[in-house]
Protein: Haloacid dehalogenase-like hydrolase
Organism: Humibacter ginsenosidimutans
Amino acid sequence: MSELAMWRDGATRRTIVDFVRSVTSGPDAVPAEERIAVFDNDGTLWTEKPMQTQLHYIIEQWTALAKEHPELAEQQPFKAVVEGDLSWLGAAVDKHYAGDDSDLKVLIGALLRTMTGLSVEDYAASVTEFYRTAQHLTLHRPYRDVIYQPMVELLDYLAENGFTCYIVSGGDRDFMRPITQEYYGIPFERVIGTAIGLEYADGDVRYGTTLDFFDDGPEKPVRIWTRIGRRPLIAAGNSNGDIEMLSFVQGGPHGLSLLVHHDDDTGRGDTPYDKGAEKALATSEESGFTVVSVKDDWSAVFPPESA
Amino acid sequence: MSELAMWRDGATRRTIVDFVRSVTSGPDAVPAEERIAVFDNDGTLWTEKPMQTQLHYIIEQWTALAKEHPELAEQQPFKAVVEGDLSWLGAAVDKHYAGDDSDLKVLIGALLRTMTGLSVEDYAASVTEFYRTAQHLTLHRPYRDVIYQPMVELLDYLAENGFTCYIVSGGDRDFMRPITQEYYGIPFERVIGTAIGLEYADGDVRYGTTLDFFDDGPEKPVRIWTRIGRRPLIAAGNSNGDIEMLSFVQGGPHGLSLLVHHDDDTGRGDTPYDKGAEKALATSEESGFTVVSVKDDWSAVFPPESA
């Protein structure tokens, strides 16, 4: 049985191991069907810097679209993409985490433009092809090699202890599904994420014209209930958008909430940052979150590069 | 291994057995993770006559509410409940299946009135208590004893053949979850149904003020994709509201869609009816649906009464 070998001995590792032991044996043991764990994806299970993987994919889609429709190059976000000024995109996401969704709405409108009418199977094929060939923009390795190995080890450790693990991400659900089984051991039906409205017609399910919901902040516990029908025992996140999910779990009769802190300045490939996590970090102590220090608690970050 | 003992030998039973054999072995075999089956609930897994179980529960809630607020007795649906004229409720559902949602909207508004602000855990407790004591209105036995035994046998048979079975119902998701494991062997996370919008605040998930979606007709394939991310191999339904789900499944590379036809006039406890299923039945042949005759294909309907 995996024993969290990539987690350095210390308070964090002991907290995890003790909690798992307490809910799997002894007086506080809970039945296996109640052992639910939920994990954010971007910044928790893999790197989200310099931008979320989904943005990389979307930029490729928008570049192609702007080539077909040159008039689009006059407006955001196509302008940013065509001019190679990707800072506009990152700033839109940062503004969201600071409470201003105006540019995020522009982003979502452009996202819908590329997806409306597409069948879910065709989108899955397009995403699968992207993952097959895309390289991380600064690390220049496949996306399967920028996952956080200690977190994958934690997923395995929990599964071995009878937990059922779900992803609960602000990222598009159907952008994750093609790779979650292979990268994380998590099947389609346990991927919860942002959802574009779907429509059924003539035998196919296709993306519609509106966003169904953005799975972030208070939406995360809502979607956890919708999909799972239970309050999880364990949650892991890394940003302000995870606070409500972490609090929901921490507030249960048995709850362990992990907040991954990107404090690693040792050059192991990932960037240190607090941006977008300031509030989660500042309130972690009073909230009872267990802060995971990438620098101190993990003995490795990324896997050795695959072939 | 269960061999569908309560299904009489004939074309329907052979179609099911042959299909299951073809997707579990031989050249058309599909991996276990793709063996998904979806089942409507009311009228497919248990009786929906004289009214859906959920209506019985809601009537009890509305009766209590109208006692607290006598002015409600002047308006529908409280008027119908207080006056004991339940035909208005049945007619509202019938009108929906005939394409007129006006009274259904009144029903949903009243439903929301009893649920807004309630925590999901409190509602689950209330529903659990209802099932513990309620008796079916005409058969006078607990609801666990008005499930269709041949269909439960089919669920078991599919599970033994590596299928993962889901409920996909027009009924309220959280009204089903408390009993699906015990009655059908289907856990919370595999119950898909109509959803009242949820809100998260102060550590709890509560019902909000709007309906999120009514899981019927074209919404069924949409919600199947949302939750499962695959096109199922097998679907079972019994009404016009199941046509799209059955067509979605029948349209896949391997698909078997079952339409339960309530044609049993032999007095085995359940009522024969075509109402609400006229279109599904009329188009079943061209759609390729396999019609399950309750009268001819099932050797039993309900289980022997439990203690």
User: Anything to note?
Assistant: Chain A touches chain B at residues 33, 120, 173-174, 177, 187-189, 191, 195, 198-201, 203-205, 218-222, 224-230, 244, 247-248, 251 (CB under 8 Å). The longest strand of chain A covers residues 191-201.
